[in-house]
Amino acid sequence: MHNRVIIALDFPAAQMAEQFLDHWRGEQKPFIKVGYQLFYSAGPQWIAKRKEEGYPIFLDLKLHDIPNTVAKGIESLGRLGIDFLTIHASGGRTMIEAARLAAEATAGRERMKLLAVTQLTSTDQQMLNEEIGIPGTVEECVSRYAQFAQKAGADGVICSGQEVSRVKQATSPSFLAVTPGIRPLGKDVQDQKRVVTPARAIRDGADYLVVGRPITRSADPVKSFWAIVEEIQQLGVGFDE
Ligand SMILES: O=c1ccn([C@@H]2O[C@H](COP(=O)(O)O)[C@@H](O)[C@H]2O)c(=O)[nH]1
């Protein structure tokens, strides 16, 4: 169950990320997410090393480009052995199909799972309609993106816990819903807009939670992490680990 909570390692340098991971010495290794802040400074070899050490890795690069460029980027990432990679659903069907082919071509024992970002959890209804220019509700947009991302070969989506049940209805139970924008009760939402508690996300069908600052900025990160794991464990939802 602890691997259902993915920690966003949003740190500026490898050394800071390693100091943070030292808190887990002697504990089961957590599922970690590396975004471009850390990836750009620490580099691909840092990821490969963590993988060798036994960390499940989610590389959150949110690829979004013409199909050929995304496919070539994925080929370069193939040898790192990452578990999850993000691409933007708004890159369109052909881009996702190319990403899937590249992920399959470079797969070792296990193929990386491709997660399509639907609408960022920092986007609210007004931004979607007035700034981004997409009509309709956030839920409608997210479930439409999820449907075509599945048809194009994505393994799941990144969405808010607010849309999980719609996404599962629009796709299938096995299509992954990975949810950032998680805030335990009483925690500051910061720049996130579509937030839910860990319990609500899992109750509504999320497969994985992504949690950054509520853990990384906590005075006791391991305790904050386990508090979230316990909150979802109490729901008694069964996962195949
Ligand atoms: O829609 C999205 C996609 C990705 N993220 C990433 O998740 C974490 C969340 O961090 P918090 O500190 O818990 O807010 C962060 O790395 C984002 O880049 C997201 O929040 N929303």
From TrEMBL:
NCBIfam families: PRK00230.1, pyrF. Keywords: Decarboxylase, Lyase, Pyrimidine biosynthesis. GO terms for biological process: 'de novo' pyrimidine nucleobase biosynthetic process; 'de novo' UMP biosynthetic process. Pfam families: OMPdecase. This is Orotidine 5'-phosphate decarboxylase. It catalyses: orotidine 5'-phosphate + H(+) = UMP + CO2. It comes from Paenactinomyces guangxiensis. One of its GO terms (molecular function) is orotidine-5'-phosphate decarboxylase activity. GO terms for cellular component: cytosol. PROSITE patterns: OMPDECASE. Homodimer. The active site is at D60, K62, D65. The gene is pyrF. The lineage of its organism: Bacteria, Bacillati, Bacillota, Bacilli, Bacillales. Residues 4-228 form the Orotidine 5'-phosphate decarboxylase domain. Signal peptide: none annotated. Pathway: Pyrimidine metabolism; UMP biosynthesis via de novo pathway; UMP from orotate: step 2/2. Substrate binds at residues 10, 33, 60-69, 121, 183, 192, 212-213. Catalyzes the decarboxylation of orotidine 5'-monophosphate (OMP) to uridine 5'-monophosphate (UMP). SMART domains: OMPdecase. Belongs to the OMP decarboxylase family. Type 1 subfamily. Its EC number is 4.1.1.23. It comes from the Bacteria.
